[in-house]
Amino acid sequence: MGLIQIDSVNVLVRSQELPLYARLGTHPRSLIPDATADGELFEYWVHEASHVPVELHPYLRWHMNRDHRWGGVNRLFESRHGFVDEVLQRIDREGPIVAGDLKQRRGPKGTWWDWDDGKIALEYLFHRGQLAAVRRPNDFARVYDLADRVLPADVLAVPDVPEVEARKELLVRAARHHGVGTLEDLTDYHRQRNPPCRPLVPELVEDGRLVEAQVEGWDKPAYMHPDAVIPRRVEATALLSPFDPVVWNRDRTERLFGFRYRIEIYVPKAKRKYGYYVLPILIGDGLAGRVDLKADRAEGVLRVLGLFAEDHADRAAVRAAIEPELEAMSTWLGLDGGVEWRP
């Protein structure tokens, strides 16, 4: 797994913690901030906002040198580039800030510190790699500081990797992380565009960095990393975040598992089919169902609001398989009341 997608929803736990739980079980919940503080991870827009290894920084600089994907961010720089420069200079002089600090520093006569423009300026500088950010633990806000005060000096000293070579490296890494995937799967992993990557894949195959494959039932060619190993069997039980790499690409999830998955956070309650925050359930090498969970911190209870088995799975067997996972999760989250199932 080459990156961890970040999401602010906290009905169960911050989503970026769940992929680690799925793979490690109970573990110190400080792993991500500790790795960030130690200079092993940094945050950037990769597959959405993501924690990524610092070694990837030189392979992302070509992207940093391009316009932001949101036009409003670029328009602010074009119309008020002096304002953006002043934000950078202020951080240089006074140290790290969060977006709200810009509003708090606004003078009574209405200085240039406007909150909306301030936030956009920070995002522009973050996109460009001039600022880096870490998450404040109490409210999850980004704390922005100069990149050379956050990222390791030896990483910043590595020369920029040209765009074509960087794109190739990202495709190869995506193949390693996925196991097997189509061109679209590989580009989606780091949110690359298909057209510039399409001609690179045959070159990677010719160079032996990718291996072309066929997957039964797929109507497109697939690609594997040359070091990929097909296991005899998969023995695992895990609860997957909606933003876990196993399921974040909904089309791929359907192709691999015959599992149609849509997150219903933004669906009105009356129209939800499964629930607000529903986790796919991995048992063996398939997705056997889904479970709607909520951490009731006031009552100290992990609530199971709904359990749904796929047509090919037995609900009682799915429940029996995940009960130990849920008990361990409630302990990991510090919910002393354990697990409570909705009747």
Descriptive report:
The protein has 343 residues and is of the alpha+beta class. The protein contains 15 helices and 13 strands. A hairpin with a 1-residue loop joins strand 2 and strand 3. It starts with a strand and ends with a strand.
Keywords for this structure?
343 residues, alpha+beta, five-stranded mixed β-sheet, three-stranded antiparallel β-sheet, 15 helices
Can you summarize the main beta sheet? 5 strands, mixed
Lateral arrangement of strands in the main beta sheet? 9-10-11-12-13
Number of helices: 15
Write the H/E string, N to C: EHHEEHHHHHEEHHHEHHHEEEHEEEHE
What's the helical proportion of residues?
Answer: 25-40%
Beta-strand content bin: 15-25%
Mean pLDDT: 91
Shape descriptor reads: globular
How many strand elements? 13
- Determine Rg (CA atoms, Å): 22 Å
Based on helices, strands and strand pairing, what is the structural class?
alpha+beta
* Terminal Cα span: 37 Å
**Low-confidence spans: pLDDT under 50, at least 5 residues?**
104-115
Describe the SSE topology.
Elements: E1 4-5, H1 18-24, H2 31-37, E2 41-46, E3 48-53, H3 57-64, H4 71-79, H5 81-94, H6 99-104, H7 115-127, E4 131-135, E5 142-146, H8 147-150, H9 153-156, H10 163-178, E6 180-181, H11 183-189, H12 194-197, H13 200-206, E7 211-213, E8 222-224, E9 237-239, H14 250-257, E10 278-283, E11 286-296, E12 301-309, H15 315-332, E13 339-341
Parallel strand pairs: 12-13
Antiparallel strand pairs: 1-3, 2-3, 4-5, 6-8, 7-8, 9-10, 10-11, 11-12
Gist of the model:
With 343 residues, the chain is an alpha+beta fold. 38% of the residues lie in helices and 19% in strands.
